[in-house]
């Protein structure tokens, strides 16, 4: 594609879209962004994709659209997940013609439990997020003769300093570790957690734009693949990052969490919790269950573009989260208590 190309980035104020927008801008393109609430600057527009028609200023020919807008929550009801992650794509498809280079951002987790995106059944996925992202990928394939689909796993910030425009997605975890809402490390012992930096994604998208639209559907999968960090190491890196901030700020250090397999958790701890915890505690436990998918992947993702080691990006991003979320980072984990409380009865529960 010739420079400057006229490019629209959806979700341009988010964790990933903001970095892509700046990278394409730095590469000399003429880049516009859209989001629900709009961003700063004349090239940032407001458009609630999937809920309203595009504003007139966006109904122009685009050389490329990088579609990042999504809701990364794993526990939305299925209808809402479709509304959040499929309808916005329909909005993009209604805006562009066949000549526009579509780059659709997906997730490595879109392949769900069966290792591909073909199943329409929610049972084939760990949660509604995976299901809706797989549905969106199928929609791209069904409606476009040419498109790039880019999958990647958990996203951390810049490699040099962990910088992120938004601490969304995975940053439920440090907050939950500090508050005690995650009572145990629930995951497979050999669980892998693949992590990329926002910079890896932005550099890849910039290369795809330079290469131009593919003949057909081109799938890229970014990550570490077989060299992904083990879940326990990831938790230790997060704990080390949070504790480095806590120690510098006089806050008691976080202890190592006990390890529990998903089977033990779902068969024993969760039924126990359902009987004995109060409503607020149960809501936290249920929300936590929706995230177990992240922690139970034992097969490495098949990557097409291997990224550099991401341990340092994880450490720095978590440390920066603590610096910028001081109230949450200062919390002291509270032990789980029963509703009406013979003290010893909580011992085996979360
Ligand atoms: N973060 C991760 O760990 C991760 C991992 C794998 C894949 N991904 C994928 O990467 C992409 C970007 O995710 P992200 O982490 O950058 O998300 P994010 O930080 O939550 O940002 C979402 C962005 O999308 C916008 N948006 C959401 N729904 C919209 C709608 N209906 N209309 C217009 N704008 C809308 C938001 O605008 P407002 O702020 O105005 O609401 C925001 O700019 C998504 O496809 C996601 O599935 C993310």
UniProtKB/TrEMBL annotation:
Residues 341-350 have a biased composition (Low complexity). Pfam families: NAD_binding_4 (PF07993). Residues 63-201 form the Thioester reductase (TE) domain. Residues 32-54, 331-350 are annotated as: Disordered. InterPro entries: FAR_NAD-bd (IPR013120), Lipid_A_modif_metabolic_enz (IPR050177), NAD(P)-bd_dom_sf (IPR036291). The lineage of its organism: Bacteria, Bacillati, Actinomycetota, Actinomycetes, Kitasatosporales. This is Thioester reductase (TE) domain-containing protein.
